[in-house]
Amino acid sequence: MDRFSSIKAFAFDIDGVLTDGSLLAMPDGDILRTFNTKDGFGIRTATDNGYPVAIITGGCSESIIHRCHSYGINTSDLFMLSKDKIADFLLFCERHSLKQEEVAYVGDDIPDIPVIKVAGLGVCPCDAVDEVKEIADFISPYPGGKGCVRDLIEKVLKPAGRWQFHPDKPWSGSFPENIVKFAGLTGRNI
Ligand SMILES: [Mg+2]
Q1: How far is the CA of 107 from the centre of ligand 1 (A)?
Q2: Fold category of 4-163 in CATH
Q3: What is the distance in A from the centroid of ligand 1 to the CA of 59?
Q4: Continuous H helices in the chain
C-alpha cells in the first residue's frame, strides 16, 4: 500500500500552499490573499466525500474564516495564529480519531517541517524552501497557490473512488457572529 492510499484526512498550511505566498497589506492592517479556485474545488470535494480537512496557519484574517467555510471545513479544524503547528496537527488527529500516518500535510516553509516529518504523507509545493523539499515525502510538480493541493487531493480520492462531485450537497458549517468577530479573543483554533 503506497502512502497515498492510506490517507484519510488532509491538513494544509495557507501561505505558500493555498496561495503563492503573496500578501497584500492594506492600510487598515488587513491582509488580502489570492486563493486558487481549482484547489478550492478539490478541498470542497474532499470534505463533501467525508475527508476531514484542517487548516493550520500562522496567519489570521476574517477572510480566511469565510474561505474555509466555503471549503466545508469545520470551525474547530481551523487553526489560525498557530505558533506550534505540530500541537495543532496532533489535536486535529485526536479529535477525528486519526493516526498521524493517515493524514497528509502540505507545507512550504520552516514552521511546517515538524508536521511534514510526522504526517503519513508530508507534501510540499515545488517552490517550497530547500529545507522542506529535503525532508518531504512528495514534492508536488505544482507550486503553491497553483494547483499543488488539487493535485494531492486527486491523487488520494480518485484511486479510492471518492472523487465524486455532489452539486446538491448543502454547505456544511456556519460560523456564528461571535466566532467571526475573533479579534482579541483566543487568537487560535477558531
Ligand atoms: Mg507557508
Answers
A1: 6
A2: Rossmann fold (3.40.50)
A3: 9
A4: 37-48, 62-70, 85-95, 113-118, 130-135, 148-157, 177-180
